[in-house]
Amino acid sequence: xxxxxxxxxxxxxxxxxxxxxWELWEGYPVAMAPSPTPEHQNTGSNLVFGLMSQLKTxxxxxxxxxxxxxxxxxxxTTVVRPDVMIYxxxxxxxxxxxxxxxxxxxxxxxxxxxxxxxxKKTLYAGNGVKYYLxxxxxxxxxxxxxxxxxxxxxxxxxxxxxxxxxxxxxxxxSDIFQ
Length: 178
Fold this sequence. Notes:
The protein has 178 residues and is of the alpha+beta class. It has five helices and twelve strands. The longest helix has 18 residues. It is globular and about 50 Å long.
């Protein structure tokens, strides 16, 4: 008998009742890491500020929004909380989003590194996230991936990203690790 046959699985309805910080991956609870380090927070803040500043000058500013640590209810058994995202479906009507973000950025830390590089990358590609940005405060590096045929291909980190028809941003790598 496998673990999948004996471990209980959960739904969003269960998830919404839990205390503490969790994600839900295909029905299985995943504990969130302890609070991020100051370097992690600084990286995220710089990224959010840079993206928000650019979006304010774009014609899509009423449709594309930058969010920091907001739940995405992927389906009935999967909830994730990316570090940073650009969501191009207007302002969500509730406490979370249910449509795929256009860009997700994860900030690596020792406790989340493998999840972000493997499991979440696969999850995001399989659910239509157009761009996946991975930042590593420790090595001060950035990797940027673009979705094509349900898998990611790496592109230049400072590429101009077309979010939707009339909206583009650039990830300013030099500003992320100030």
